[in-house]
Design goal:
Chain lengths: ~280, ~240
Amino acid sequence: MIEVQHPGMYSSIQDIGRFGHRRYGVPLSGVMDRDMAIAANEILGNDPNDAVLEFTHPGPTLFFTKPAIVCISGAPAVVQINQDELTPTKPILVETNSAMRFGRAEQGLWSYMAVKGGFLSEVVLDSRSYYRGITKSDHLRKGDILEIANLSELSEQEVKWGNKLPEFKVVDSIEVYPGPEYAQLSEMQKIAIFEARYEVSAQSNRMATLVRSGKIVKVPEIITGPVQPGTVQLTPSGKMIILMRDAQTTGGYARVLQLTKNGITNLSRMRPGEKFTFRLL
Amino acid sequence: MEPRIEQFGANGVLFRWSDRITEQTYREILALDEYLKEEYSSELIETVSAYTSLAVFLKEDLDVLAFMDHFEWRSSSSENQASKSIVYEIPVCYEPQFAADLPLVANHCRLTENEVIQLHTSVTYDVRFIGFLPGFAYLSGLDRRLHMPRNNEPRKRILKGSVGIGGEQTGIYPQDSPGGWNIIGSCPLRFFNVKEQIPSLLAPGDRVTFRAISAGEFEEIEHQVCRGTYKLRTV
C-alpha cells in the first residue's frame, strides 16, 4: 500500500480513459500526457492502460508500506526518497517504509508515477480514472490509501532496468486539424487564428486549457454537437477554450480546430503563462 | 437527407445533417447509430449523437480516411426507426419547496402555476441525446407556451433531480451542478448510476412524460429508489 501523507497541488489516479460511455454523457478522462504515462508503464513491463499516479507541482508526499518498483516520468520533478534527492530517468526499487516527496519541476505541468503492476484503485465503468461523480473522489486527499500489487506476485514480468525514458520536451507549436466549424470562418479570421500567439491561463484544468491572445475572433454559438479532447472552441465573445481529457461529450460553442494526438500531448505540457501558436496539418 | 461525412480529429468521423433540428433528422440519426452498431461494431469504440450530428470514434489503429472511403449507408425512411411505443413516466413534484422559479415562469409565460404544470405534464417528450452531464437527457417537445430564457445569473448549485426550463428546452439535472435553467420541480429518480450495466436511466430514442406527484409521494419514491425497489413505470 501507499499512504498519501500530503496530496500535493492536484494529484489523481488515471489510466488511458473511460471508453464506451460517452453516449451517456460520461467524459473520457485519462492521463493528460499519454506518451509519458505509457512510457513509464512500458519500462515496468506493465500494460499501457495500467493506472498511474498523475500530479502537478508541488507533487504529493507518499509513504510506502510495502516495496514497489516505480517509474517516474513526465514533467521532471525533484524527488526525495527518504533523505536522498534524485531526478530519476530509470525504474527505481522503493523499499518498505520509505517516504517519497515530489517537489517542483523545472518545466512541464503533469508528472507521472507508474508502479509495477499498476495502481489497483476501483474500476468504475471500465476505467480507474478519477472523475467527479463517477469515482469516489476526483483527486487524492490526505490519508488516502492507494492499493498496489505485491511485488512477489509480479516477479515473472520483466522490468527494463537499463532502459531510459524518452526525453521530456516542451514544444510551442501545436498541431491541429480543421474543426467542424472551420469552414465557416472568414479568411481574415483564419489568418488571425494562425498568426496569434496564445498564452495558457491559470484557470486551466483537466477539463480545458483556457488561453489568452491579442487577437479576438468571435464566432456564433452552434446547435449543440459532439466534442472531444483536443476540440478548440471559440465563444461569441471571443474566448478560446481548448477541451482536454475531462471534457464534456457535447458542447454549444463553435469547434474551429481539433488538436492532433501530438497536439494534445504537447499542449498538456504547457504551464500557465507559456505561449504557443497553432500549426495546421 | 444524406448526412455529410467529415473527419473529426485523429480517430473521429462526424456525420452532419443540415443545421435545422427536425424530427426527420432525429429519426435518421437513431437509424444510423443503430446501423453502425450492427455493421461496423468491430471498427468503432463508440458513438456520440446530438441534435443534427453523430460522431463516431474509431479504434485508434484504424485509418479514418479509409473508413470514410469504404463507409456506405443510404438513409431510407422505411428503415428509419419508428417512435418507440413505450413511454416512461417520470414523477415530478412541483410543490413550492422544489420549484423556486415556478412563480417566475408562470409570470413570464402569463399562465397560472397550475397551467404551467398542466402544460409540462401533458406532452410526450423525445430523448434526443445525452450530454452536458453524465445522464443528462436533452428532451424535445416542450410546449411553446413554456419557452422562457435562462437566468442571466446562473446558480452556483442546482440540486440533483431539479427539473428546469431553459429556452425551448426542459430537462432534469442528474447531479448537483451549476446551471442557469428555471427550476419548476424535482424528480426523485436516479438518472445516472455507475453501478448499473447501462449507467444512464435514459438513452437516445426513449420517450418520456412527466406526472405531477405530491411531496409525500416524492419521499416515498425516493426511499424506493434508495432501496433499489422502484420500478420505472410506463404509460
